[in-house]
Amino acid sequence: MSTITFDAVSHTFGERTVLRDIALQLTEHRIGIVGANGSGKSTLARMINGLVTPTKGTVTVDGLNVSRRAKEVRRLVGFVFTNPDNQIVMPTVQEDVAFTLRRRGLDSAEIERRTATALERFGLADHAEHPAHRLSGGQKQLLALAAVLVADPRVVVADEPTTLLDARNTARIQALLAGLEQQVIVVTHQLELLAEFDRVIVIEEGRVVADAAPSDALPEYLALIG
């Protein structure tokens, strides 16, 4: 597993302080992050691959400073957004998955092979030539995962990946995330997704207020919002 370190990290947006003095070291296989809307949990997650940079302090992934070496870090950390439309960039399903690999400078045969494998893995092979933005919500989220995982990152960060999905597709995405070999960090309001995780971090008003196994951390979160 990778080592992700937050060292005295704070972040402000305008006059609002979003995160305050965060100190964490993330090494577990599956880590959940929970908190109320506006608590700072998504900001925390987006710092892991440089989508947001700290106002103070440093974030590192395997020793790489995310603010200074974002391009290298993004080869290690894949990010899955809540709304897959925000990361689908190419016209067809096949082209969208292949786009990730083309940016890595691979030859065409290798791109074709790895794209086909990813589409098969995520049940999208029959949709390879279909318009990506006309897929169902569940299929779009599968495509977003495929486009991230085809590059074989060490870490996958998913920011509320099931919020827009029905129960069937939520269960499918949950099973896929649970079965990944990569280190997985999931931000979610759906606490059942985290029951078998190794660690859950609770964020409240920009601070870590609980950090423990799900059986201990989730009741503390429920008490906060109850």
Characteristic terms for this protein:
alpha/beta
Verbal overview:
The chain is α/β, with parallel strands linked by helices. It has a single domain (4-225), classed as P-loop containing nucleotide triphosphate hydrolases (Rossmann fold), CATH 3.40.50.300. The protein is built from seven helices and ten strands. The chain has helices at 41-46, 70-76, 93-102, 108-121, 137-149, 167-178, 214-225; strands at residues 4-13, 16-26, 30-35, 56-61, 64-65, 77-80, 155-159, 183-187, 199-204, 207-212. The strands form two sheets. Strands 6-7-8-3-9-10 form a six-stranded mixed beta sheet. A four-stranded antiparallel beta sheet has the order 2-1-4-5, with helices on one face. A hairpin with a 2-residue loop joins β4 and β5. The mean pLDDT is 94.
- Average of pLDDT: 94
- Work out the helix count: 7
Structural class, from helix and strand content? alpha/beta
State the order of secondary-structure elements, H for helix, E for strand: EEEHEEHEHHHEHEEEH
What percentage of the residues does DSSP assign to strands (E)?
A: 25-35%
What's the name of the CATH homologous superfamily? Answer: P-loop containing nucleotide triphosphate hydrolases
Q: Outline, from the CA principal axes? A: globular
What is the count of structural domains?
1
User: Which oligomeric state applies?
Assistant: single chain
Q: Give the terminus-to-terminus CA distance.
A: 34 Å
Percent helix among the residues? 25-40%
Could you tell me the radius of gyration in angstroms?
Answer: 17 Å
In the CATH hierarchy, the architecture is 3-Layer(aba) Sandwich
CATH T-level topology: Rossmann fold
- Given as residue ranges, the uncertain stretches (5+ residues, pLDDT < 50) are none
